[in-house]
What does this fold into?
Amino acid sequence: MKAIILNLSAWAILPFMDTIAKYLSAELSFFQITWARYFFTVFWTLPFMFIFFRKNLTLSENPKLQILRGLTLFSANICFFYSISVISMAKALTLAFVAPLVTTALSPILLGEKVGIRRWTAVIVGFIGSLVVIRPGFIEFNLATMAALGTGCLYGIYLIITRKLHSTDNPLLTLLLTGIVGATVSTFFVPIVWVNPTNIQWLWLAIMGIFACLGHILLIYSLRYADASKLAPFGYFEIITNIILGYYVFKDFPDLWTFLGLFIIIASGIYIFRREINIK
It folds into this structure.
């Protein structure tokens, strides 16, 4: 029960980060917002670890994989922050929910895992769900919807890399290193799009970093009490907070097709995770 409460709390908090990012994207570049997300992740995480988890501030046992993981999540964040700057958060998140399906599809190639016909069928059904949301040929299929799908694909790869790192590096160290990679890479390019934020915007950017850190720390702690496969279906709870915030802040509410696609994608993802638990 403790693991479920921590996990659900994380997914309830993280959409606040997305809401701030979408709000600020009206005046700031999505790339600058991505930079701030990573800068403030390091800004808040490093003192926290130094005070409470100093022994975890060690060198990574797999630095190349850590860098690759950081770059993958960084790219996913860029895609997602761009997508929500154009389309609703609910639609972007629904399309990003293809991540578990991508993980399943790539597991035989990257992890050497066996994926049977039933899980392949679930992957295909989940992809059909994403087509229901974007309805190519019926509504405009733009770069923002492609970016949202790209978020899911990149996040699926990120999950695979995280699986590989789970048995080597401490999760808190992984969180810090991911922030350092994203902050370092984005710092080289952010001057191109830099706009001096106002004091209020700096405050919102800092708060966004707090939500990011708090959400990921809660996720890490939830994994102390339960396996990732058992907690994975609870990740879909994020859409509830996402829809509520999108409606009250931006007056965005998903249409029936988005809800239908969301249902198909979630059903496919939960089926895959149930199959994984049964196999184990």
Summary: The radius of gyration is 18 Å.
